[in-house]
Amino acid sequence: MDWAGWALFGVVATAALTAAMITAQLVGLTRVDLPLILGTLVTEDPDRARVVGFVIHLLAGQGFALGYAAVFALLDRATWWIGALLGVVHVGIALTVLLPLLPGVHPRMASARAGPASTAVLEPPGLLALNYGVQTPVVTAAIHVLYGAVLGLLLQAR
Length: 158
Hints:
The protein contains five helices and no strands. It is an all-alpha fold. The protein has one domain (3-110, 120-154). It comes from Plantactinospora endophytica.
């Protein structure tokens, strides 16, 4: 496995994924703002939160890229379609497990049980992140499949 490639291409793929999610938000395809969500874990200031959240997402994406690279190494091959399949698994876990659990640990996110007295500034994502718009799951899935396909193309098994 090209481990030096993982270090470089993991960052490149994650930056591209994050930029695509931000672009989708800016053009109105989704209301999810992942850098804001992640950054408000550590700071209340929304401008700082977006910067910190981008860094957190880059680090998390690097970790996921390591997982992809490990699977490619176990299979002794890296292809775009294997990467795309891993992207489907990745987004499936993110939308059905990770995001719905986030309100339980996020200090500034409301939960589905939060009443009108809640002081949380972020709404909970809900299952498949549907609270951020009906197109959110489709946009998120497409971007993660692309992330996996790009990693599969760039990471060549040795």
